[in-house]
């Protein structure tokens, strides 16, 4: 049976130090469960960026298809933010959000560390270049996402609570077992990055701090 491409949605936000505990409790005790229970959402990982002096968090959602970013069920959630979400949204800064199709990938699984490269232009899928990136030690997968600007850019009640979202046209995710391995893979594969349209993108390391799947929710585990 032939299936279409799967989707991903990436959302970054910065949080003040004094609000970090409330933010993380919101993510792990309400928000991610609400999102992953939405039709089309498969699972989520929450990651923290390795930027000294900054509390920057990334939510990476796996979607059953790229169309989920503009689906009626998801938009209904975005237009009915909970009281806790309203409080959190009022305090986050440097929000950047984009979702769409996984247009190319190589390798398997998910790493404990992820190098995320936001692209200003749509990515250029190149399977050989992705294979080059994952050939090094302690690297498990590379994924290239093309953002659906129209689906991501729909105005919603939740978005209106923030100070404006940053945008990006594509995203390269390199997944591995530790940050030095990710850094080495990027440093030794500059031609591959250029072929993918990521030569000038800033590479920021992220560490996974929480994960939740739809299967876990469906099991009723608590």
Could you explain the architecture of this structure?
It contains nine helices and eight strands. By secondary structure, the protein is α+β, with helices and mostly antiparallel strands. Strands 1-3-2-8-5-7-6-4 form an eight-stranded antiparallel β-barrel. Strand 2 (41-49) and strand 3 (56-63) form a beta hairpin. Helix 4 (127-133) runs antiparallel to helix 8 (190-196). The radius of gyration is 17 Å and the shape is globular. The termini are far apart.
CATH-level-2 architecture: 2-Layer Sandwich
Largest sheet properties? 8 strands, antiparallel, barrel
Helix content: 25-40%
Q: What's the overall average pLDDT, rounded?
A: 95
Rg from Cα: 17 Å
**What's the CATH first level?**
Alpha Beta
Find the structural class using helix and strand composition. Answer: alpha+beta
How do you describe this structure in short?
This protein has 222 residues and is of the alpha+beta class. The chain has nine helices and eight strands.
Helices and strands in order:
Elements lengths: L6 E8 L5 H17 L4 E9 L6 E8 L8 H7 L4 H7 L3 E15 L5 E7 L7 H7 L5 E9 L1 H4 L4 H4 L9 E7 L2 H9 L2 H7 L6 E11 H6 L3
Antiparallel strand pairs: 1-3, 1-4, 2-3, 2-8, 4-6, 5-7, 5-8, 6-7
Name some characteristics of this structure:
alpha+beta; globular; single chain; eight-stranded antiparallel β-barrel; 222 residues; Alpha-Beta Plaits
């Amino acid at each position: 049976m032939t299936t279409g491409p799967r989707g991903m949605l990436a959302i970054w936000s910065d949080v003040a130090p004094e609000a970090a505990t409330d933010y993380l409790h919101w993510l792990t005790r309400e928000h991610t469960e609400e999102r992953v229970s939405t039709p089309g959402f498969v699972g989520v990982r929450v990651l923290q960026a390795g930027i000294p002096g900054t509390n920057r968090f990334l939510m990476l959602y796996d979607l059953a298809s790229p169309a989920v970013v503009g689906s009626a069920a998801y938009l209904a959630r975005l237009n009915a933010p909970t009281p806790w979400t309203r409080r959190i949204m009022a305090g986050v800064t440097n929000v950047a959000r984009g979702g769409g199709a996984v247009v190319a990938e190589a390798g398997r699984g998910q790493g404990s560390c992820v190098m995320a490269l936001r692209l200003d232009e749509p990515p250029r899928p190149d399977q050989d270049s992705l294979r080059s990136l994952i050939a090094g030690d302690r690297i498990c997968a590379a994924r290239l996402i093309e953002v659906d600007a129209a689906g991501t850019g729909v105005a919603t009640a939740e978005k209106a609570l923030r100070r404006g979202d940053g945008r990006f046209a594509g995203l390269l995710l390199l997944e591995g077992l530790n940050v030095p391995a990710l850094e080495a893979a990027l440093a030794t594969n500059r031609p591959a990055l250029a072929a993918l349209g990521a030569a000038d993108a800033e590479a920021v390391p992220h560490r996974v701090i929480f994960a939740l799947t739809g299967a876990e929710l469906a099991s009723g585990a608590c």
